[in-house]
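Sequence in, structure out.
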Amino acid sequence: MGIVNEDGQSRSEIAISWLNATGFLTLKNFAQRTDALKELNATNLNAVLILPENFTQNLDYGVQTNVSLIIDGTNPDVARLVDDGIRTLFAEFYKTIINQNYTEPIMVNTETAVVREAIGYKENIVPGMLTYPLLFSSMVVSTGAIVFEREKGTLKKIRASPIRPINMLFGKTLAALFQTAISIIVMSVLALFLLGPKLNWNVPLLIPIFFLGSMNGIALGLIISCIGRAPQEASNAATTIAVVLQFFTGMYFPIEYLPVYMQQIGQFIPMTYAAQALRNIMIRNATLSDLVVPMATLTVSALILYGIGVVLYKRWVEK
């Protein structure tokens, strides 16, 4: 949310520090309201809060003061969440800092600006649906495949042949990628024809996100498979982990809806960045420059996790 502090005095600074301390929204300060509104229109902000010049003076003299809140109404749920949160904060701010006998002297004048086509339930849910295969399909498939080969005794035969055991790992990775791709394609086609969401299907940007997200899921599955002792045990472990992780990634709803501690946990889960990137591409028409951070994060995490998986796999083969 953008903050324009036209007052610049003690009361307004305290109010901003209160808002910042809640962790409710990420704040960005602007010197001019025109700059803040420009960012709002560019869909880089969810809202703009303007504190007027006489904010501190009016509060000191007990005079009613008005603050302006301009919200991007594209997503009604997010707009309502921001509006309610700001109103509650100013109510508590006045009761705690100014006067215990609360008479609501701070009025929040809310203005809704739809800066892009309104987002409905269908538009919100489809990107999350497409994140599902990245977490479940890729992880569970790669987990079961490796352990199943050990159960069958395939590794003993491979070690007796000219084929290197690592080649089997790469083959299983490609197979898991292919199965995940099939799941994504099927779900995309069904969503497109059954739900008909108004989304930006930017395939050149979606493909690398799907690939990197799948590689993270496969890498996690590989690590689990090297720890599990039996196919059923490893598969159950992968499913359980995926079920738990899905609630921290913002798969089914924007991560902004989650409590702060869950958002903080989600920052350490690669799929969170995949889910956010898909939403930004399909809903907010993000460009390549907007995806540098999530793509870099997914790439680094995939390399680290897959590297750990390869090390565990080699130790597993040697045993």
